[in-house]
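Why this split exists: single-chain examples teach little about how molecules sit against one another. For that reason, every record in the complexes split bundles all components of an assembly together and asks for one structure covering all of them. Below is a record exactly as it appears in the raw files.
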Amino acid sequence: MIKQTPLAKVHRKLGARMVDFGGWDMPVFYTNVIEEHKITRKKAGLFDICHMGEIKITGPKSKELVQMVVTKNIEKMPIGKIYLAVMCNQKGGIIDDLTIYKIAENDYLFVTNAGTKNKDYAHILKTKKKLGLTNTQVKVKDISKQTAKLDIQGPKSKLILKQLTKVNLDSLKFYTFKQGKLLNTDAIISRSGYTGELGYELYFEAKSAKKIWNNFLKAGEKYGIQPIGLGARDTLRLECGMNLYGHEINEKINPLIARYRWVVDFDKNFVGKKALSKIKEKGLSKQLVGFEMIGAGIARHNYSIIKNNNKIGYVTSGTYSPTLGKPIGLGYVSKKFQKPGTEIEIEIRNNKTKAKIIKLPFYKRR
Amino acid sequence: MSKPNPKELFYTKEHEWVKINQDTAILGVTDHAQELLTDLVFVELPKIGQEIKQDKSFAIVESVKSVSDVYAPISGKIIEINQALNDEPGLINQDAFNKGWIAKIKISNKKELDKLMNSKKYTEYCKKEEH
């Protein structure tokens, strides 16, 4: 059966076009993707992200388990900080990319992708067992169902959020969070997001989702806030060169080629380290790059990337960039062709169309 | 709400329209289609001189999210294409039945029109599809 967030009915009432997104009944847009994209860049957008997963890891040995599960070194991670990390399998392939919140000593929150949450959870439990950790030493709890997540993103997001909370947002730095009241609901208020704009990710009890959603739309009305669907969420993240699970990354892709080298720390132990060390020693055969189209056409997922009549890679994501007004994409190419400026071709419906590798990100907030 | 479907056109189940003028015809997608497709950002036009076959794809329209075929309502040979769509694919969204036309053909078999719907039938068809 298709899963619904607490807001599915609200989206329908707002006139959203709903799609099945990995088993979730989600809004792809309310008005249209391009308009919603631009509103997020210029004003503020509100996103229902309740489908994403939240897993709590607590207990006296929680640090040991988290260290083993993720590639990032959390040894000196401060309370109130967020880390982006990946979880690898034994072969170094990416099980998921996620954010880690350090709530308190021995209290971590993992925010995972929706479609990967169950396998993440299974992987954490398996690793826990391998380490011989008991339930009194570490508790792993999937709290996705009772947890709502809303993102508010865009230059006006802070002004709007200020009307719903007394938490001091001015002192809240990028990739940190605070706990406090959102209206009268306990919440995690996190300065982060998936759009490249100033923005916040908010976590609170699922039963308050509707009330908080509606209050955001009301408080943000004078600032031009709009609800934003997954369509614009995808184009926004793509302009920033951010990965999307199932496109840029999957279990056959390792973090070193996926522009995630910086979240891997070889000075500590973690699942997949042995394999990744070997891959690193051998040298990387391909690399994730960004490109823009020169010829007419839009590159799409799995289209071939060609150079001198040879296939040198494939497209992982491609779309029309609403901000740049031209088609852009991400893809893997053989290492020797990864340099920005390299001319390539994309095979679009049996035609080779010119494109050029360019430096990422495509878009950066001024 | 879609714009009304003009009476002088014929329609396919895939939401294309055809306007007949003696031996030639103009082809496009309907306003209902553009609503389903949402904002178009790219149109791949056929080539002049290309033979197209009824029910076979002769053009591609792309939105931010999707790639869709446009199927020929009737067979024929392309004699003109709407070049304006290269720069402004959104013409289909703004004016699907006029400025958003896709191609003009020389008709090869007028009998194929029997398979198409008139505006009344097509309007009913769209209503049914929505439910």
